[in-house]
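re: that chain from earlier
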Amino acid sequence: MKSVKELSLEEKILKRLENNPVCLELVNYLFNDEELQVMQDYANNVSIKRLGYNDHGPVHMRQVTANAIKMLNILQQSGIETSLEREEIGTFEDSMCGIIIAGLMHDLGMMIGRQGHEEMSSLLAQPIIDRSLTHIIPNNLRRRIIIKSLATECIIGHMSSRKIHSIEAGIILIADGCDMTKGRARIPMALNKTPKVGDIHKYSANAINRIGIHHGERHPIRIDIEMSGDVGFFQIEEVLLTKIDSSPAKEYVELYAGVSGHEPKCYL
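^ sequence. v structure.
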């Protein structure tokens, strides 16, 4: 049974894709894929209950997907081509399919463990990528291979632990970093009371009240972060900024963050 939050995010994703029938068919296929749902749920169990990390399950993966779709749409509306478009090897729709797949599968490797989970995510995702693309693009092998390769780059590159080269993978990297509000840390904060190394990530995420993604003024994408306390700056500077700095999409982003009631700080 899907949670209310999962269903709410699915509705948001569907709305953002309402003018793209192929991508709508893809997300509906993946939202109804029982194996993918079980894998997402189990990844979250391992992350929270076994390892004491924050949410890496179906809600997080849907939130990252929603973030990435919004960012890619903003780039298109700003006249910025994706890497597939620039290279004249694919369409905007192909790029969107790639980030949808990556967003919904990038943390499947948490089923195995934290170390190298991006590589494990890529390995575990391959059968689902193959069957979902065969379902929506049954008669175009070349297109399926291009989208699959792009999605795999996005998945492997989401931790900024390896060099990535496409705008699409760069968007997934930033979209993942943008899911760090207090709701993501709520369950591990409640379950794990014993202090340990690494708790700063939970406490700093718990200070993030809101993250907004909008059209920017100096650059196409503006990210606004509102915090309840200064500890939230740790999450921004150690997690989000690290991802943005490693992203091929960095030049399209402006970033503001601040504590509620105070002037926000401009990072980018």
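The chain has two domains: 4-177, 182-266.
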